[in-house]
Amino acid sequence: MTKRKFPAKPGHLLRRCHQIGVAIFLDACAEFDLTPLQFAVLQALLDDGAQDQVTLGGATAMDRTTITLLLRNLERRGLLRRDRSTHDQRAKIVTITPAGRKLLQAAQPAVEFAQQRIVAPLSKAETAHLLRLLEKLADNNNEFSRAPERQQRRSA
């Protein structure tokens, strides 16, 4: 273990771990041209079905601008479709396409590899403990997020 120039502060270490995790994910999923946020959106659509953009943004803890840009990019690639809601003309319903499903299926081993690589320095018990602590931090500090995670409301 190397000596740190900065004190071991939670915010700094979380930022560093985020950088490392994103780098590992991007490396593992390079052949699929898939980012962690894109994966999260596609996986949410696969798991929970079609939903409006606001609900999807809340479920994946993304702000309105981020989710809109991300969806536009995925739509251009043919991985999802956005249609006007029949209930609310202002809302767009997002649906994963067959190409999106195919990409997720193909990328799944790379995503799993990335997740395992992120926690490779830890034992199984340490990994489980870390995940419990991260969930506790995220859940109990959700209100402080600029894009808080929100529970799903069905609106398709």
Tell me about this structure:
This protein is mainly α. It has one domain: Winged helix-like DNA-binding domain superfamily/Winged helix DNA-binding domain (Arc Repressor Mutant, subunit A, Orthogonal Bundle), CATH 1.10.10.10. Helices cover 58% and strands 8% of the residues.
* CATH class identity: Mainly Alpha
| N-to-C order of helices and strands | HHEHHEEHH
**What spatial form do the alpha-carbon principal axes imply?**
globular
The CATH homologous superfamily is named Winged helix-like DNA-binding domain superfamily/Winged helix DNA-binding domain
Indicate the proportion of strand residues: 5-15%
Estimate the helix proportion, in percent: 55-70%
How much is the radius of gyration in Å? 17 Å
Query: What would the CATH topology be?
Result: Arc Repressor Mutant, subunit A
> How many β-strand runs?
3
Number of helices: 6
What's the structural domain tally? Answer: 1
Based on the coordinates given, report the CATH architecture: Orthogonal Bundle
Distance between the termini: 51 Å
User: Stretches where pLDDT falls below 50 for ≥5 residues?
Assistant: none
By secondary-structure content and strand pairing, the structural class works out as: mainly alpha
Give the spatial strand order of the biggest sheet. 1-3-2
